[in-house]
Amino acid sequence: MRETAFVPRLRIHNLGPIEDCEILMNRMMVFDGPQAAGKSTIAKAIFFFRTVKDEICETFFCELMDPVPWLNAKWYLLKKLNRILGNYMSIKRGTYLSYEYAPDIKIEVRLVEGANSLITFSSPIMDALEKYREIDFKAANMGDVRRELQELFADNSKIVYLPAGRSFTSLLMHQLNYILAVMDDKQKDTLDYCMKDYMERVMKIKPQLVEQQLYEEVAKIDSTHFGFMQSVKEYMGRILKGRYVNVNGEEGIRLFGSDSDKTVPLDFASSGQQEVLWILNLIYYYLREKQPTMFIIEEPEAHLYPGSQKEIAEYIALALHGKNECVVTTHSPYILGAMNNLLDIKRLENKGVDVSGLLEENGLTGSQLLNRKEFAAYFVDKGTIEDAMDEESGLIRNEMIDGASDRINRLADEIFALECGNNE
Question: Lower CB count within 10 Å: N or C terminus of the chain?
Answer without folding.
Answer: C
